[in-house]
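Here is an idea for our session: we take a single protein and study its fold together. To get us started, please write out a protein record for me. Start from the sequence, derive the backbone structure tokens from it, and show both lines together. Go ahead whenever you are ready, and we will take it from there:
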Amino acid sequence: MNSLRIALIASMRFPIADPFAGGLEAHTWALARALTRRGHRVHLFAAAGSDPALGARELPVRRVVLSAAARSDTSMPGTAWMEEHHAYLGLMLELARDGEDRFDVVHNNSLHYLPVAMASALRVPVITTLHTPPTPGLESAIQTDDECPVTFTAVSRFTASSWRPTVRAARVVRNGVDTDFWTPGPGGGDLVWSGRMVPEKAPRLAILAARAAGVPLLLAGPIADRRYFQETVEPLLGEGATYVGHLTRRQLAALLGTAAAVLVTPEWDEPYGLVVAEALACGTPVCGFDRGALAEILEPAHGLLAPPGDVQALATLIPRVMSLDHRDARRRAVGFCSLDRMADAYTSLYEEVTR
């Protein structure tokens, strides 16, 4: 296998650093490390504050100086939008100028539209991973050219299917977790919920289901939507529900390994569900709502799914999931959603497009 020079473009909304703001950041960090371990030269373009061990280069944020007339125009977007737009614009112009001399392939792992819209200006192949349901920015970027030159992957069959009206063929490469790091623990009697504290992840439903089942619940994750947390989650804490904070990956692995089961309660169609893979790798079965890609990962031996939003049905499943064999959960992670499988799939794709 030849060593490849890979430009890996990350989201600039949050640093690629532990503790991670979400699954996208955790995935990008793990992918960069896995490719580097395989001997590839990975150049990560990411937000300020990203892990220095990755050798990340900060996306080139230019403070745009606008006139008073421009700032007062009704079309004036927010400052964050302007900075993000100019960061990706600057990067893509730089890659168009000298990318061919520096890289063999560009892997766009961000959610921004410009790496797709400007891909035809580059003289190296561009791969974009679809991490979310369709967005207007990306859909319009794909249609910039009659034949979009980008090779697309999707993190699940469900996500690939949701993009099919615009992306006819996206190769499925599921997000993987390092099964040498996420390892089985002793188990325990508590339930765990992990994720961003936002409405679409619905931690409140996990609290209600755990309470109905009479099992203590520990919740972990960043408070990405403070108003939602304060108004919807915080009032439900107590009576067996405890928020333990925004944990590092090591702390989270330890927590998952001491759980009887993990609850996953999306109120949106989950494109993948990295927490499911992390839980399985820690030997912990999963109980959740049947939305999005969760049914692709889980089988009855290591996880059960209730109808979307049905808290009582979820509560009824909890005792059954707590009795599942933790060894089956671990076997599923190693065989289906390991970091090695993901890194091998991306490496094969890089070699294919560079040929």
